[in-house]
């Protein structure tokens, strides 16, 4: 018994009944482990369900039984302060709807990402996550599961998305350094290994630097091997060796920026008198360092609210095509002591 799931359409109980050659009532008994069904028939039904990628709609059952919706939230790294803030935003708005949230952590590993999503999918009606796996792979591995992707353009049918406008955020950061602080030799600390494609944050910063007539590119970029303070320290040391006359730096995130400030101090450079530093994310952590960190702030509560709204849209119609324009969170520069 073998039939491929239909791309873009969630399998129904009727599809399972047709493939197994039984009634819908028999499918329901087999799926819910009820009596009055033979072992061979039950196995045939379950095999049909597996073949089609069928998942009973907990959402539809919740409408009938006043049960609550459960959302699975996949985080990339729970040790990074950014992700608990995102989780807090999702939890807050989900709680307002009376929904439950279960959380998983991929630890930044793509293999673990798919495994974690599959575990969450067995417990939840829909998923929210910042995923590195391609749309096609997610659709193949999680057929029929509504997924809302963070920092991701609209794509596969049955997938929603919420974008962060990194371009406007980095334009604000670069404009502040150039126009407000008069910096002319500005480096970029990227958040991925050198072999990886450039992130939107880096590309946006470099584009704006060039628009100001300033040098930008690989010669003015260092790569943090991790999104941590230590990663920022190492990347800044590398960049400072290559560009000792650097007078400003924009960073992939706040932790990398704090590491950059620590390394500048170690090298005898004053922040901001000698080098201005800007982070990205707007974590409360940035207010606790000296000098306090200028950062491009992302409204994590709004990110969570928009993601939950996308989940509600998909649950109402799991086969709906992706919207042409995903909801967008627009970051805002918060100026503090580091610039």
From TrEMBL:
The keyword Transcription applies. InterPro entries: HTH_LacI, LacI/GalR-like_sensor, Lambda_DNA-bd_dom_sf, Peripla_BP_I. Keywords: DNA-binding, Transcription, Transcription regulation. Transmembrane segments: none annotated. One of its GO terms (molecular function) is DNA-binding transcription factor activity. Residues 11-65 form the HTH lacI-type domain. The keyword DNA-binding applies. This is LacI family transcriptional regulator.
């Amino acid at each position: 018994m073998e039939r491929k799931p239909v791309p873009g359409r969630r399998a129904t109980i009727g599809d399972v009944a047709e493939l197994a050659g039984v009634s819908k009532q028999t499918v329901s008994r087999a799926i819910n482990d009820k009596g009055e069904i033979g072992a061979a028939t039950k196995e045939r039904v379950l095999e049909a369900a597996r073949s089609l990628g069928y998942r009973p709609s907990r959402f539809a059952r919740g409408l009938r039984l006043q049960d609550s919706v459960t959302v699975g939230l996949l985080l990339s790294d729970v040790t990074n302060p950014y992700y608990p803030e995102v989780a807090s935003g999702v939890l807050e708005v989900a709680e307002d709807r009376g929904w439950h949230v279960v959380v998983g952590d991929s630890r930044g590993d793509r293999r673990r990402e798919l495994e974690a999503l599959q575990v969450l999918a067995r417990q939840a009606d829909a998923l929210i996550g910042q995923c590195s796996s391609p749309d096609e792979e997610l659709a193949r591995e999680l057929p029929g599961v509504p997924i809302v992707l963070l920092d991701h353009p609209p794509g596969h049918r049955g997938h929603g998305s919420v974008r962060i406008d990194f371009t406007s955020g980095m334009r604000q950061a670069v404009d502040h350094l150039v126009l407000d602080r008069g910096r002319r030799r500005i480096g970029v600390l990227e958040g991925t290994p050198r072999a990886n494609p450039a992130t939107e944050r880096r590309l946006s910063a470099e584009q704006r630097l060039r628009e100001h007539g300033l040098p930008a590119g690989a010669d003015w970029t260092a790569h943090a091997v991790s999104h941590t303070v230590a990663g920022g320290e190492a990347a800044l040391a590398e960049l400072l060796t290559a560009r000792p006359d650097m007078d400003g730096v924009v960073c992939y995130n706040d932790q990398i920026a704090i590491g950059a400030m620590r390394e500048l101090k170690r090298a005898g450079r004053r922040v901001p008198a000698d080098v201005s530093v800007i982070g990205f994310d707007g974590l409360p952590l940035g207010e606790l360092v000296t000098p306090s960190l200028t950062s491009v702030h992302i409204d994590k509560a709004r990110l969570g609210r928009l993601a939950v709204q996308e989940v509600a849209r998909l649950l109402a119609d799991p086969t709906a095509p992706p919207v042409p324009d995903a909801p967008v969170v627009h970051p805002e520069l918060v100026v503090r002591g580091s610039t």
